[in-house]
Write a structure and sequence with these properties.
The chain is of the alpha+beta class and about 550 residues long. It has helices spanning about 10-20, 45-55, 60-75, 85-95, 125-130, 150-160, 215-230, 245-255, 300-310, 365-375, 420-430, 430-450, 455-465, 465-475, 485-490, 495-520, 520-530, 530-540, and strands at about 80-85, 100, 105-110, 115-120, 135-140, 140-145, 165-170, 180-185, 185-190, 195-200, 205-210, 235, 260-270, 270-275, 290-295, 315-320, 325-330, 340-345, 395, 400, 410.
């Protein structure tokens, strides 16, 4: 689901995702160093746990105490070092893997029910006949639709070792009884390139959602496809890309830079300086390029953007990036858990650190920084941007850039508030737009599946004028003229708010429905067509 952020709570949850889940571990083929010299025979902490285990007056669960202690110790460090318990390690590592073992469905949870949004082509679920729109009611003969079910619970249940069985019972629209399927789990590819398409004239658009093990190969496949379709200039969209493996960002940057150009360097107290430079064999050295970033572009996204900006290779458009310039290395423990320890800082070619300021052990302050940006107005105006490092750094051509808190774009485009209203914000924040789109797709799937491209499907939806139907859907859930919260902060009546935000509502709902039928390759061309940042990128390339 495309993230459209308004409330502080949602922003905060995304920040926590960066802090806990952002795996920017440098891979094994990069600079490494020996750890053996760091380990003493027995630390003071080891001795204390031993004393407690052997002599404490009551019985103790030492494993539980150790787990809590590990979490507390890591919290004394920087915001991106983290401890990963054994039970979570496989799930966390799979975020950036090229594949994982599972049943091969995309889902969301609506009204405590797991709804299948899409079935991955060629996956195990498609092979047995599971369809988009099915609702999972039972798993292994146990009820699986209940209050409080979470995404984590669903993933832990449906994923598993390759070759193992899982039985699901689904409710299908139009079928009276539950349908039972036994699925043999298999390898499910994890894609980091959401879509690639010609957005206008000869301009290719590539959306990259993370930097995983397969990002570079996926990216090059997408670029080759666009080139064969006539693209002569490119937009690389890294908005909401929280990062990943450094080596993938380096390989991508290498495709656009001439021999000898610095891409990034990293160093730390016990980490020898590591430099990455372009080898000059890139396949897109001359084509015009624009890179899109926003407040949630972090880590490897900033490595790529910083390399393009400092080498004057691309125009960066959007909003200031997140500001994560720390390198983590994953270190295993004997019990199957692991630690991601920050071992170095990375720097852009001009020498600037992208890492925003932090205080050891002050995780909550760090997490709130992005919320403060929002409250301070930085999401809307470049004049509100606070630069932590006022030192002047220089790009290849002598242009001044700054560090210490993310990449500042060459062209700043704030959030467009002209059509926003309390009605629209509440519908989006409560996910009613998304829920309605799924409901509409589910009840009209047979008719919608007649359309094989997003243009014809959008024309059909516009003729149906389903926004009015959505307004009734929202009203049934309390977002209507009787909702005092909608007029408390607005001089407009609810009816006028609806009309003001109608273009936004229509665009978003239609795009969601198109995604439910045609996937991201249909969603992004429709959604990006009217996006202000994307339109600025197109105009920049035309000029």
């Amino acid at each position: 689901m495309k993230k459209i952020i308004f409330p502080t709570l949602i922003i905060l949850s995304l920040v926590i995702g960066f802090v806990i889940g952002d795996t920017t571990a440098q891979k094994a083929d990069a600079q490494q160093y020996r750890w053996s010299s760091f380990f003493a025979p027995q630390s003071k902490v080891d001795q204390m746990l031993q004393y407690m285990q052997q002599g404490y007056v009551d019985s103790l669960n030492i494993d539980s105490i150790t787990e809590e202690m590990m979490q507390e110790l890591v919290e004394k460090l920087d915001p991106h070092s983290s401890y990963i318990p054994k039970k979570d390690l496989e799930m966390v590592n799979s975020e950036l893997s090229a594949s994982f073992s599972g049943v091969g469905v995309q889902f969301n949870i609506q009204q405590d029910t797991v709804c299948i949004v899409a079935v991955i082509p060629g996956g195990p679920s498609e092979g047995v006949g599971v369809l988009a729109g099915d609702k999972i009611i039972k798993v292994n003969d146990s009820i699986f639709a209940y209050k409080g079910i979470s995404n984590e619970k669903v993933m832990h249940t449906l994923r598993g070792p390759k070759g193992t069985e899982v039985k699901i019972s689904v409710k299908r629209f139009g079928a009276e009884d539950l349908l039972d399927y036994t699925i043999i789990r298999g390898d499910i590819p994890v894609h980091s390139v959401d879509a690639s398409f010609i957005i206008e004239d000869n301009i290719g658009f590539v959306k990259v959602n993370k930097f995983s093990e397969s990002t570079y190969s996926e990216f090059m496949d997408a670029m080759a496809k666009l080139k064969s379709e006539g693209a002569t200039s490119y937009i690389v969209d890294l908005r909401e890309n929280s990062g990943g493996y450094m080596d993938q960002a380096i390989k991508m940057a290498n495709e656009f830079l001439i021999a000898g150009d610095m891409i990034v360097y990293a160093e730390g107290r016990a980490y020898p300086r590591y430099e990455a430079r372009a080898n000059g064999r890139g396949r897109f050295l001359l084509q015009p390029l624009v890179v899109l970033i926003d407040d949630f572009s972090a880590s490897a996204s900033e490595i790529f953007s910083g390399a393009m900006q400092d080498n004057d290779r691309a125009t960066i458009i959007g909003r200031r990036s997140f500001g994560k310039g720390l390198v983590q290395q994953q270190l295993p423990f004997t019990d199957g858990s692991a630690m991601r320890l920050t071992v170095a800082r990375y720097y852009t070619p001009s020498g600037r650190s992208i890492q925003k300021p932090y205080t050891l052990g002050k995780q909550e302050d760090y997490q709130r920084e992005l919320v403060e940006r929002f409250e301070h107005g930085e999401f809307y105006s470049a004049d509100s941007v606070h630069i932590a490092d006022t030192t002047s750094y220089y790009t290849k051509s002598g242009k001044i850039v700054y560090g210490g808190g993310g990449i500042m774009p060459d062209i700043f485009i704030g959030r467009d508030t002209t059509l926003l209203t309390p009605f629209y914000n509440k519908c989006v924040n409560m996910a009613y737009t998304y829920q309605f789109a799924y409901h509409y797709t589910d009840t009209h799937r047979k008719e919608l599946q007649k359309y094989s491209d997003w243009q014809s499907l959008e024309k059909y939806l516009l003729k149906k004028n389903i926004t009015d139907e959505f307004v009734r859907f929202a009203s049934d859930r309390g977002v209507n003229a009787h909702d005092a919260t909608l007029t408390k902060s607005s001089k407009l009546s609810v009816e006028k708010q609806i009309e003001k935000s109608r273009p936004l509502l229509t665009r978003l709902i239609n795009a969601y429905i198109v995604r439910n039928i045609l996937g991201d390759e249909g969603f992004y061309p429709l959604f990006e067509r009217d996006d202000e940042i994307t339109k600025s990128a197109i105009q920049t390339l035309k000029n």
